[in-house]
């Protein structure tokens, strides 16, 4: 039996005023409103700006029921400086400590770019990084397909680290779709939308402009269910954030998962036991 | 999701006999056990359970050694009836999604999903549904892969086993294979893997990168096929129909009607060797051998023999085939032609070359050497003296 938590990647989008947040909602109140809809959120700002402990403690205080996943800072995944990454890892670890201490840290997401290849230097770095972040629950998303091999899977299993399962357009350059349970404690699923036309060569917002159909969500539910055997926690985040579509899809998926019919009315998606 | 052009699904229930045992008796799920046929001095593990596998027990390992590793190891007999039922149930599930399936038994099945997307949606969605049905109806976890050909799909399920899902887009075959371990490639057994590792080759991509002259020097002519496989090239069609209903047949029409038993013997041996080579090349063994003789008066006689086990080697097949031919040759009339059928086919038992009992190891090695020669120089290059004496 697993605890399944559904949420979105990020919550602080001004374009969600209207489709998600009531008109007039202040930006600082977004998180509290979000927590009324979902039991978990994936924080993405931490990729662009190194988070601080006081900031994350305040976020927990404003939404005490919310479980957090947090994306690692880019200095640990995209712009790695061999001379300073350990210091950055320490800063990041210190920042997320309040969430871990209050038992609301569900996962740290390490998202590596296409340029991060399955080569000896990268593997050594990854091993060191995983050791540095070992006290926290970890999930890894690789964008380069070279990592999708049996040795990577074995290594993740040995370390009890989740390989993020991805749903994204099936276009050249994207990694293969792979759902494999590599951790007994955590499964991590990121749904990026399937907008093939705008995936390459457009702005970030257009890339994630997609609304999953009920049929597509039903199929995704089948993928999710395969993780619920012997995995304690399954985290699902919709990243198709444009115009609040991630929220709409997260609620639709919740309805499907609990056996209800798909509805357009916003409700609250609590954790699910599957 | 746009169809990726990949329409082959491979379903692989890892360590099938052990998985079926757990499905039948869920209390075994956390128990280290193996499926083995006890009784001989050098019994080997046929299938380890997941727990036993995690403790280092492997298929083909002597049972004595497995017990040394895990003193509490349970040994279960191979429940052929239950595994056959589970195989049949998986086939039934698969048949609901595609009329074109290759059922290899032992928890392996391929589906060609071409033309089914309007009915079932993207191929990968069908793969998800099939895996879900196998879990729900049979309580079996499966690895499922979607790819453009059987070879890549099979590597896919081997990559994600014991359970998982993977979709390899058409055009991405070589890049997907590149970083996989060589042992995941069909045709690379323990001996070949050892040979490759001596040359520092540990990934499939390293085989793919070899030039023709390097392959020929290192692995011989057979290596070219292995190199093509490493590049993800496979045009083999699905072998539809259940394996036990497939036949490997050879027919010999005599230039002139014969009456001499020695000439018939030569024909049976030649046909048997040729059919057996084709059967082994497909990774199959047989449980039934049938001979049909057509006489100059237009009448026909036939006979067959069955085994509860499996006939694989030339010496077994030619010996049995000759016995069957003698049973069939009940008339003293000139024979026009002789047909030999190897039937009730099933996948070969796992290659146990490291752990085979000595006598069987010798037979296996000899047969493999003979097959290599025939693949290299043609089927007729090595044959039983009988066939030459009466050619």
TrEMBL record, chain A:
Xref: InterPro entries: DUF72 (IPR002763), UPF0759_sf (IPR036520)
Entry superkingdom: Bacteria
- SUPFAM superfamilies in the record: TM1631-like
Pfam families xrefs: DUF72 (PF01904)
Q: Which residues form the signal peptide?
A: none
PANTHER family per record: UNCHARACTERIZED PROTEIN YECE, UPF0759 PROTEIN YUNF
Report the protein name in the record.
DUF72 domain-containing protein
Protein source organism? Sphaerochaeta halotolerans
Automatic annotation (TrEMBL), chain B:
What is an example of a Pfam family matching this protein? IMS
InterPro entries in the record: DNA/RNA_pol_sf, DNA_polymerase-Y, Rev_trsase/Diguanyl_cyclase, UmuC
Q: Which residues form a coiled coil?
A: none
- Name a GO CC annotation attached to this entry: cytosol
Q: Which terms does the record give in the GO molecular function aspect? A: DNA-directed DNA polymerase activity
First and last residue of the signal peptide: none
Q: Which domain of life is it from?
A: Bacteria
Gene Ontology biological process terms from the UniProt entry: DNA repair; error-prone translesion synthesis; SOS response
The residues covered by the UmuC domain are 8-189
* PROSITE patterns the UniProt entry points to: UMUC
Family assignment from sequence similarity: Belongs to the DNA polymerase type-Y family.
- The name of this protein is DNA polymerase
């Amino acid at each position: 039996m697993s605890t399944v938590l559904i949420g979105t990647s990020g919550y602080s989008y001004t374009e969600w005023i209207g489709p998600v947040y009531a008109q007039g909602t202040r930006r600082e109140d977004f998180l509290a409103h979000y927590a009324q809809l979902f039991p978990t959120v994936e924080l993405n700002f931490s990729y662009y700006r190194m988070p601080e402990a006081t900031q994350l403690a305040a976020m927990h205080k404003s939404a005490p029921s919310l479980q957090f996943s947090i994306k690692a800072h880019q200095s640990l995944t995209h712009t790695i400086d061999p001379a300073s990454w350990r210091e950055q890892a320490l800063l990041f670890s210190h920042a997320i400590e309040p969430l871990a201490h209050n038992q609301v840290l569900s996962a740290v997401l390490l998202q590596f770019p296409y340029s991060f290849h399955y080569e000896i230097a990268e593997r050594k770095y990854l091993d060191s990084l995983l050791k540095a972040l070992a006290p926290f629950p970890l999930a890894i998303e690789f964008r380069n397909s070279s990592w999708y091999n049996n040795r990577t899977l074995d290594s993740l299993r040995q370390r009890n680290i989740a390989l993020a399962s991805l749903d994204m357009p099936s276009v050249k350059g994207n990694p293969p779709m792979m759902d494999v349970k590599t951790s007994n404690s955590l499964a991590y699923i990121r749904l990026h939308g399937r907008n093939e036309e705008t995936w390459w060569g457009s702005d970030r917002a257009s890339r994630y402009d997609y609304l999953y159909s009920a049929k597509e969500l039903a199929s995704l539910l089948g993928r999710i269910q395969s993780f619920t055997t012997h995995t304690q926690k399954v985290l699902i985040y919709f990243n198709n954030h444009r115009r609040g579509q991630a929220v709409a899809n997260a609620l639709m998926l919740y309805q499907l998962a609990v056996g209800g019919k798909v509805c357009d009315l916003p409700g609250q998606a609590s954790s699910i036991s599957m | 999701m746009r169809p990726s052009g990949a329409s082959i699904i491979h379903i692989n229930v890892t360590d099938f006999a052990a998985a079926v045992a757990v499905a039948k008796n869920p209390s075994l799920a956390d128990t280290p056990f193996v499926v083995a046929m006890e009784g001989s001095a050098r019994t080997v593990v046929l299938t380890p359970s997941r727990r036993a596998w995690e403790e280092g027990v492997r298929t083909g390992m002597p049972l004595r050694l497995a017990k040394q590793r895990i003193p509490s190891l349970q040994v279960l007999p191979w429940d052929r009836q239950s595994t056959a039922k589970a195989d049949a149930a998986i086939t039934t599930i698969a048949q609901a999604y595609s009329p074109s399936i290759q059922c290899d038994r032992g928890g392996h099945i391929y589906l060609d999903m071409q033309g089914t997307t309007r009915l079932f949606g993207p191929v990968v969605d069908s793969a998800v549904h099939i895996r879900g049905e196998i879990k729900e109806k049979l309580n079996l976890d499966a690895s499922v892969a979607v790819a453009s050909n059987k070879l890549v799909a099979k590597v896919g399920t081997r990559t994600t086993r014991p359970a998982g899902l993977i979709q390899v887009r058409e055009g991405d075959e070589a890049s997907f294979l590149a970083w996989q371990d060589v042992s995941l490639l069909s045709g690379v057994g323990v001996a070949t893997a050892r040979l490759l590792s001596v040359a520092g080759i540990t990934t499939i991509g390293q085989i793919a990168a070899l030039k023709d002259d390097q392959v020929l020097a290192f692995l011989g002519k057979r290596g070219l096929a292995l190199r093509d496989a490493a590049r993800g090239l496979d045009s083999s069609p699905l072998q539809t129909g259940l394996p036990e209903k497939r036949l490997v047949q050879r027919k010999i029409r005599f230039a002139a009607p014969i009456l001499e038993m020695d000439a018939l013997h030569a024909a049976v041996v030649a046909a048997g060797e040729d059919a057996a080579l084709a059967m082994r090349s497909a990774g199959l063994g047989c449980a039934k051998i049938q001979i049909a003789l057509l006489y100059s008066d237009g009448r026909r006689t036939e006979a067959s023999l069955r085994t509860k086990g499996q006939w694989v080697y030339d010496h077994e097949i030619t010996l049995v085939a000759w016995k069957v031919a003698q049973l069939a040759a009940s008339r003293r009339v000139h024979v026009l032609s002789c047909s030999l059928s190897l039937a009730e086919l099933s996948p070969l038992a796992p290659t146990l070359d490291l752990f085979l009992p000595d006598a069987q190891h010798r037979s296996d090695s000899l047969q493999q050497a003979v097959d290599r020669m025939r693949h290299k120089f043609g089927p007729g290059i090595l044959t039983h003296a009988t066939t030459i004496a009466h050619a």
